[in-house]
């Protein structure tokens, strides 16, 4: 039992479902690859942002290079930075196979 009733009532203030999905999803084209897995990306309207790779892309070793089309998430409060969440496949690019592992 809680001595102070306000402690148990304020649990929901940290997780508001309406603000959990308040990011903007947008597509862009990679202009430059920068150190530290950062990228300079141009949006469809001509705006240039600084973007970094999301955790899933980093975990799965998805390679992103200049000229790739990517989907990003941006905060409505800071439109100069973004997180890359998806790399679109180029239909004209050759299929790359991972190198064979030696046993």
UniProtKB/TrEMBL annotation:
One of its GO terms (molecular function) is RNA binding. The keyword Kinase does not apply. InterPro entries: NA-bd_OB-fold, RNA-binding_domain_S1_IF1, S1_domain, TIF_IF1. GO terms for cellular component: cytosol. Residues 25-89 form the S1-like domain. CDD domains: S1_IF1. Pfam families: eIF-1a (PF01176). Residues 1-21 are annotated as: Disordered. The keyword Protein biosynthesis applies. Keywords: Initiation factor, Protein biosynthesis. PROSITE patterns: S1_IF1_TYPE. Belongs to the IF-1 family. This is Translation initiation factor IF-1. It comes from mine drainage metagenome. The lineage of its organism: unclassified sequences, metagenomes, ecological metagenomes.
